[in-house]
Design goal:
This protein has 3 domains: about 190 residues, Rossmann fold (3-Layer(aba) Sandwich), CATH 3.40.50.300; about 80 residues; about 190 residues, Rossmann fold. Helices cover about 40% and strands about 20% of the residues. It is built from 15 helices and 17 strands. The strands form 4 sheets. The chain has a 6-stranded mixed β-sheet, with helices on both faces. Strands 14-15-16-12-17 form a 5-stranded parallel β-sheet, sandwiched between helices. A 3-stranded antiparallel β-sheet has the order 2-1-4, with no helix packed on it.
Length: about 500
Amino acid sequence: MSQIRVNDLSFTYEGSFEPVFEHTSFSIDTCWKLGLIGRNGKGKTTFLRLLSEKYPYTGTIDTQTVFDYFPYHISPEDRQRPAAEFAETLKPLTEEWRIICELNLLGLSADVLYRPFSTLSFGEQTKLMLALLFSGENDFLLIDEPTNHLDQTGRDSVKTYLAKKKGFILVSHDRDLLDACIDHVLVLNRHTIEVQAGNFSSWWENKRKKDQFAQSENEKHQKEIAKLKSAASQVKQWAEKSEESKIGFDPIKDPGHGSKRAYIGAKTKKMQSRVKQMEKRIEQEIEQKQGLLQDIEAPVQLKIMPLTHEKTTLIAADNYSFQYQHTDRPLIQSLSFSIQQGDRVILNGTNGCGKSSLIRAVLQKLEPAPSINWTESGSLRTASGLIVSYVNQDTSFLRGNLKAFCEQKGLPEPIFCALLRQLDMERSQFLKPMEEYSEGQKKKVLLAASLLTPAHLYIWDEPLNYIDIFSRMQIENLILTCRPTMLVVEHDTSFREKIGTKTIEL
């Protein structure tokens, strides 16, 4: 076992005014199964890259450990080749038999090593890279979002696999995965960093109690400060009134009042001394109060504007089949379902089973495209005049600034930016081009646009990929409070179980 000691670490991206890390210090053990938790944009991926010496920084990271990073960058040329031909360039000195052993633990056969990488499914690519990552010895592994885009079966196999490993940092927003796989947490809070033993749920319960205590202490200090300010103000007024009462006494013309004037002066001085003591106590209370609420997670209650349709049934499929041209079998076959107003329908199934294709077919019914590359049979009907708000799983099309995005979408920019702030996006991000955003920040842009669009039906295709845990909880509360009609593809188990009212299995 060895340690990684971070001392006085500071880092700011070139051209940015806000530091990602500023005089940060902590230490972690390399035998831990460490979960890295924090809001989007707080520096989780940046920290992994600093460990990998991708960026220059000030301060020190003291360790004898060798790091390896997931996901690997695989060049376009290598993607056309089998992994067996380029594995050693990614993981020097690795032996093929070790990779095959790890593949078996992930439920894959050795043949994925010898097929062109680009022909593998996303799940197979992810598992192959994880097998390669863990095929070395004594490396401390940096694992960044391993389950994004994986179906439930893929997530379960990765969860089972990682639960048996140790010596890694795992960045993930999947609460179920974190609870199963980690024994320590490294938390990037709003203003501090903490290291704690336990999984996500134990840390969250401790944080909830800690936040409640901080809020209680803050209220106590606020009351004490208000009471002291009121008393100080009253004594100050008495002192000023007493001082004014000396005016008019002339010790030469009216020598009989000399002693009274001295008495009043002494009394005033005593009251002014009391005021100074109270002001000192106020400063002490304020000092004790500082920092109490700096890491409080109190997400703002979001709102959505669902419309009510005149029809009860918004979408209905009867014996519906869907097949892409130039394929030998239907992707979706003999599917029947309906979506009623108020339903929150989860589309469930393995990668490649047709979830996103079914969404495309629904959107095609609402806005027919001039050319399509599929054939269909049976019926898929949508209510007339149905307005849909759609969140695509792809964020690569986001370019330019938020102002241009709002103009393109017909969204009020001040309200849109206020909503992004409620999703905990820093104001400093609003001036940046969206291509510089993290993936989580890009997803928040799409979600904010959807929330501001009044609709009968909200269709969200993997909306939570890269979205931080706290924002996921915000969105859960929004859906449970406002109860919009939804069709959702999402692999986050906790999210599905909380918001879903109906499931369509593909």
